[in-house]
Amino acid sequence: MTDQTLLAPASALAPAPTKKVFVKTYGCQMNVYDSDRMTDALAKDGYVATDNAEDADLVLLNTCHIREKAAEKVYSALGRLRDLKKRKAGEGREMMIGVAGCVAQAEGDEILRRAPAVDLVIGPQTYHRLPEALKRVGRGERVLETDYAIEDKFEHLPAPDKAKTRARGVTAFLTVQEGCDKFCTFCVVPYTRGSEVSRPMAQIVAEAEKLVSAGVREITLLGQNVNAWHGTVTTGGEGLGALLQRLSQIEGLARLRYTTSHPRDMDDSLIEAHRTLPALMPYLHLPVQSGSDRILKAMNRRHTAAEYVALVERIRRAQPDLALSGDFIVGFPGETDADFEDTLSLVRSIGYAQAFSFKYSTRPGTPGADLKDQVPEDVKAKRLETLQALLLEQQRAFNESCIGRTIDLLLEKPGRMPGQLIGRSPWLQSVNVDAKGVEIGDIIRVRITAAGPNSLFADVVDD
Ligand code: SAH
Ligand code: SF4
Ligand code: F3S
User: Does residue 455 carry a pLDDT above 80?
Assistant: First the structure.
């Protein structure tokens, strides 16, 4: 001990008092990943995560702007938080409120204007500046941090320690690419996440290795257009296919996935990876949005329905076991009954294992918002109902087709009943199994015995 520490006041030697942060996540998987990274960035300043806003010193809303409803949720949550902040202030407890994510990026000024209780607005490109921004809030400023940062945020965002990674589970997300240059005419993402940026390979591999050394068995690579990832891979090749090949060499990493892909970026090497890499799960989320060429053109998707079908056929030739998932929008401006019929027939010809479908939501600032021929709400609702019934039927059929199959199951968490565990199938289904002498993170052989619409049941197979 030096004289200096002996002379230091007691308070300087005591550990920093624990502060609590409550993060509420809306939207896509990238927001889930970002929320964890923000929590990790705050850990250095003595913040621990809480799942209760009531005892939080800081509440962060990580928001989504994709549809009107998603964005509206933020303002109603802020109304409730304003009341909580006021009540706590009356009891002498301070609570800061921060808004992050895509609504923060798109409507930062408006949030500060409409919600005076908000102390901080921070966009997705600047999360590494969060600790500094909070210091400014501490000095009494209201902070708006929505510039596109010039520095690489990922370089500056700290990684979690092993214990924290393990506590988050045996599956993990890893963002490899962010932003989008596609400008589909309905979509806000190019405006909220900025233009496409790929993380360098070495940074991705290092993060993946760290996750695996903490016990992660399955990694899902994330990007708004993950298959647009561009970079040179030192073990050979370029692009996402080569990156997957490199990651599959990490010992202990059993499974790889990636999402979300754009049909125009499914290149040969990525398709080949589905044939050659056992670690790459036979599951692909490949949104098509519509089955009508007219609408696809108006959406600026830059491919036809026939091209999509042909692409799926090629991928299925490489990986016959592939389960396909998709996104659909009904009621894009100008969509007629005949266009909608084309969507239904595309769905019938593909056969989806899972899908997400939405009513078109007009987003300010996107080209779609200015189009005439907006489709009436009741027509959208009817079409959505019809489409969802078909997609649900396909999902059931896919789940039922799994009955009798023997598969590898990655055990993820305890089930509801004693002795029961919940695992994940190669096709992302939740599977309930009774198993003894196994641990979370193990991959076991099971036979599927029954199927519900959302989960499967299985028995252990003794090899
Ligand atoms: N990058 C992905 C999609 C990201 S957004 C892709 O290109 O496929 C996720 C999904 O939200 C989209 O696939 C689309 O189906 C839906 N979506 C996006 N904007 C929408 C809007 N304005 N109205 C309704 N759904 C929308
Ligand atoms: Fe949005 Fe289209 Fe980009 Fe997907 S590809 S994020 S739908 S603009
Ligand atoms: Fe929503 Fe932003 Fe993700 S708008 S879907 S949170 S990229």
Answer: yes
